[in-house]
Design goal:
Layout lengths: L4 H4 L5 E3 L17 H17 L7 H15 L10 E5 L6 E4 L3 E5 H6 L3 H16 L2 H7 L6 E3 H13 L4 H4 L3 H7 L6 H17 L6 H15 L6 H5 L4 H11 L11 H13 L3 H14 L5 H14 L3 H16 L8 H14 L5 H11 L4 H13 L3 H14 L4 H14 L2 H14 L3 H13 L4 H22 L2
Parallel strand pairs: 2-4
Antiparallel strand pairs: 1-5, 3-4
Length: about 475
């Protein structure tokens, strides 16, 4: 379909499997083209969204992309498209997929004790992608004949996310047969460690964070009575690997790199999400009272958020005023978009602030890339019947984030308010398609077609429907 075809259509074309494994670093011999790698990654993302593994929190995902691209800029392929995303799973894991897609479990975000530790994990995953390790392993599968990219995508997703659960996740015999061979070899892991350390150093992080994180995970297996974290299964951690990394970082100075406020705020959101509103209020009250650990700005952010969830609007307003005062006195916290987003949500909840719309207008102008603000502003515009302004805003954001389903949902709502039935169902179709719900997308397109429209509009809908049917046919052949 119009917004999907360039990314997804070829996901379902077959690719020949080669019969030789190229030397490390020899990208020219890889069996998959960069476009095919991207298509496999896109198909894997559809599977993730369809299974509800995707953590649809724009602030967490935007933070991961900001941190990830800071590392990518110093990689061997700084022009390669990457997408970093959070997974709604509190087990400890992270994984790379072809085409620049890197998933980070909520559990890993909470387990890392510094931003440098998190960056060390991302740098390792980035290196798997820039070295095209998965593409080379696919080429190494012999005797399988033609394998569809959709089949490979499912096999890779199972191999990378949780090997123990992979058998249940894979329904195709062909996919199951290649999944078992898609775990990274020791040579690939060591290469990703070496290149990842270089990325950390070039990007200004503490390189000692990598061995510290891996050693802590390795030690945790003793406490877990042999039940190692998923990260240790998808990335086997050996004493030799840790020793090799430590040997490399000993030659580099130990740098105490302060964590960004956004790192602390993202972790606060995840901590709060694990608790009920009342539990979160108690937790953050205690943290602020003892003042022995954590970032007080992040802790008060968590308290305001929890009070808002508990509908304690008056106290949330009071604590927000304290939070903003704290932020203004801290140079690293001034004009933080996550704090501004929370401030807007408190204003909306109060329902008696005549300046709320003006607040959002200014906030979006100051932070045009912060999607959480855009969502709330668009919703507020629609409540105020400013549908034209909302549609213009959403169209601009969809150009930047063509797979953002929340933007399409808001767009569909705006068109419905204008009585534009065809456009409403088209927008809803794109939302469903990016969520991996292809049947619901087709149903919305059929409704759009029934609404009538210009020759161009109806031709585009027919084209979208044909593509979705081909995608469904390919799914059935996996």
């Amino acid at each position: 379909m119009k917004k999907l075809s360039l990314l997804l259509f070829l996901c379902f074309t077959p690719c020949a499997v080669g019969d030789g494994l190229p030397d490390l670093g020899d990208v020219s011999q890889a069996v998959l083209t960069p476009l095919q790698e991207r298509q496999i990654g896109q198909q894997s993302m559809l599977e993730i969204r369809a299974s509800k593994q995707y953590l649809a929190d724009a602030e967490i995902n935007d933070y991961l992309n900001q941190l990830g691209y800071r590392l990518v800029e110093n990689s061997a392929e700084p022009g390669l498209d990457f997408e970093f995303f959070a997974v709604n799973d509190y087990s400890i894991n992270a994984f790379a997929m072809p085409g620049g897609f890197i998933g980070v479990n909520a559990g890993l975000l909470l387990t890392t004790q510094s931003e440098s530790e998190l960056a060390s994990v991302l740098s390792h995953e980035i290196s798997h992608i820039t070295q095209h390790h998965l593409a080379r392993m696919i080429e190494g599968q012999q005797g399988d004949g033609l394998i569809s990219l959709a089949t490979i995508a499912v096999a890779i997703l199972a191999a990378r996310t949780n090997p123990q659960a992979s058998e249940a996740a894979i329904v195709s015999t062909q996919a199951r047969s290649i999944q078992k061979q898609l775990n990274f070899t020791r040579a690939y892991e060591e290469e990703a460690d070496r290149i990842g350390l270089q990325l950390l150093q070039k990007s200004g992080f503490n390189t000692h964070a990598m061995p510290e994180f891996l050693e802590r995970l390795q030690n945790s297996t003793r406490l877990l009575e042999g039940n190692a974290p998923n990260y240790m299964r998808t990335h086997p951690i050996t004493s030799d690997r840790i020793a090799e990394i430590e040997n490399r970082v000993q030659k580099q100075p130990y740098r105490l790199i302060p964590d960004s406020l956004n790192f602390q705020l993202v972790r606060t959101k995840l901590i709060s999400a694990q608790k009920t509103a009342s539990e979160a209020i108690t937790y953050f009250n205690d943290a602020l009272g003892t003042q022995k650990y954590g970032n007080p700005i992040a802790q008060r952010y968590g308290l305001v958020s929890a009070l808002l969830r508990d509908n304690q609007i008056e106290r949330a307003t009071q604590e927000l005023a304290t939070l903003r005062k704290q932020a203004q006195s801290d140079q690293t916290a001034r004009n933080n978009p996550m704090i501004e987003t929370l401030a807007g949500q408190v204003k909306r909840a109060a329902k008696n602030d005549p300046d709320t719309l003006a607040f959002y207008r200014a906030a979006v102008q100051n932070f045009p890339q912060h999607r959480a603000l855009v969502y709330d502003y668009a919703d507020l515009l629609l409540q105020d019947n400013q549908t034209g302004t909302a549609i213009k805003l959403l169209a601009e954001q969809i150009t930047r984030h063509p797979s953002d389903t929340t933007l399409y949902d808001l767009q569909a709502r705006a068109y419905a308010m204008q009585g534009k039935v065809l456009e409403q169902h088209q927008a809803q179709a794109y939302s469903y398609a990016w969520q991996g719900n292809l049947y619901a997308a087709m149903e919305q397109l059929e409704l759009a077609k029934q609404a009538g429209g210009s020759f161009y509009q109806l031709s585009a809908i027919e084209s979208d429907l044909r593509e979705l049917r081909e995608m469904l046919d390919a799914r059935g052949k996996k």
